[in-house]
Hints:
By secondary structure, this protein is mainly α. It has helices at 7-10, 12-15, 17-30, 33-40, 44-65, 74-102. The longest helix is centred in the C-terminal third of the chain and has 29 residues, at 74-102. The protein has one domain (15-102). It is built from 6 helices and no strands. Helix 5 (44-65) crosses helix 6.
Amino acid sequence: MKIIITESQYKFLKRRWELYEPLVKREMRDQEPCWYKRRFEVKGFQRYYETVKDSISELIFYDHFSDDLGNVPEEVELEFNEMVRNELDSLIKDMVKNYYESYNCDDYPNL
């Protein structure tokens, strides 16, 4: 089974943003930005962002294919996740970066 992604499908997240925006905000909180800042220092944001993005992509995949999850071929899963991850870059990167950079870690213990 092969999925062909059309232009209208590519805007998958943008059309459903009101459903997924709370998920993005929850995932940003759950990933604990201070841990990434302290653990990875300069590379912290990139690792934090990739983790948030991967997590959201997986949750959206499970939500989208939940009715037939066991029958989704691996290549379809990979293609879908790539599409979602690419679209997330344009939708959330600035929001995640602003959240990450403004998050106060003064009370967070050193690692």
